[in-house]
Amino acid sequence: MTATEATLPANDPDLSGDNVAVAFEDGIAWVKLNRPEKRNAMSVSLAEDMNVVLDKLEIDDRCGVLVLTGEGSAFSAGMDLKDFFRATDGVSDVERMRAYRSTRAWQWRTLMHYSKPTIAMVNGWCFGGAFTPLICCDLAISSDDAVYGLSEINWGIIPGGVVSKAISTLMSDRQALYYVMTGEQFGGQEAVKLGLVNESVPADKLRERTVELCKVLLEKNPTTMRQARMAYKYIREMTWEESAEYLTAKGDQTVFVDKEKGREQGLKQFLDDKTYRPGLGAYKR
Ligand code: COA
Q: According to the UniProt entry, where is the signal peptide (predicted)?
């Protein structure tokens, strides 16, 4: 058992199953890909379980921040090669499309626009298809000894699913093509340089640093947090003119939907009460 595993809270029996384990701790939902004997390779049933878990956690007050990680030595060894290649070779197109649909749902459609902040905590092996959920989490912290690789070229396929698209959003063309073409492995510190993760820390500090970051996020107004994340993600594909209009409207909408009245609170505490400085931290909630 690693230091990380030893200190994680107990799994919630209602949300945990064969493929995914969920544990709650002070506003954090720890979501662990839970097929350690298969290095958390992402099977069809894991996708189905992840869809249920993400759906439930979105409306569960115990989840303020979602941390996605892996049980055992892997974050994830990528797509389950047996399930997604050999087993689908003989099945109907309809079954194949259903498997792809389940996977696309959790790995990027849901995660990318999830209502709660998400952090990928990369604890070990991270290959191929695993880059998609990693990149679709808002933030990522890696263990220095995690091993990453776009290994597809090593066994005769392309980085498919949506991996090539996902890496193109964070890595430069030179970097992405280098790893697509060589299949070379790299570690946590290199993942920082490539822009794939925010930071990389020694394995025994991984959980501690992740919790520290979660606490910072949990201090903030959750409505503003959601709106700010969404706004950023949507404007990436807009023009400057569209962005300006959209952000103005999104800002107005934020005031409208924020039950906590964060904007008023912030202005009052800074301008009238003089009890805090927005440049130095969150207003008192
Ligand atoms: N799909 C299906 N099964 C996988 C898998 C994958 N992506 N990755 C690992 N497994 C299975 C192995 O087949 C093995 O199963 P078995 O016990 O029934 O034989 C089990 O997980 C353990 O794997 P093993 O290779 O013995 O573990 P390891 O710790 O020595 O090596 C890896 C770990 C991740 C380096 C190695 O498993 C690997 O290269 N996996 C494939 C990674 C990859 O290319 N992924 C891209 C997919 S898009």
A: none
Closest atom of ligand 1 relative to the 82 alpha carbon? 2
**Domains identified in the chain, total number:** 2
User: Is residue 128 domain-shared with residue 231, that is, in the same domain?
Assistant: no
Looking at the chain, the whole-number percentage of residues with pLDDT higher than 70 is 96
Q: Which domain holds residue 257?
A: 222-272
Shared domain for 105 and 241, answered yes or no, is no
Is 1's pLDDT higher than 50? no
Query: How far, in Å, are 1, 6, 36, 47 from residue 125 at the CA level?
Result: 16, 19, 11, 19
pTM across the whole model: 0.95
Which stretch of 76-90, 128-142, 185-199 has the lowest confidence by average pLDDT? 76-90
**Alpha carbon nearest to ligand 1 atom 30, residue:** 39
38 lines ligand 1 (CB under 6 A): yes
Quickly count: other Cβ atoms within 10 Å of residue 145's Cβ.
Answer: 14
